[in-house]
Amino acid sequence: MSAGGDVLRGIGGHREVDEDWLTCAHREAKEEIRTDIEILPAPATWHIPHQGPVQQIKVSDKPRPLAFYEMLHSPGTPRAGVLYHIVIYRAYLPSPPKDLPPDDLQGVIALTKEQVIRGPERKPTLEELLSEGALLLTEEVPVDRQTRLYPLGTALALAQVLRHVNKA
Question: Which domain holds residue 113?
Answer without folding.
Answer: 7-167
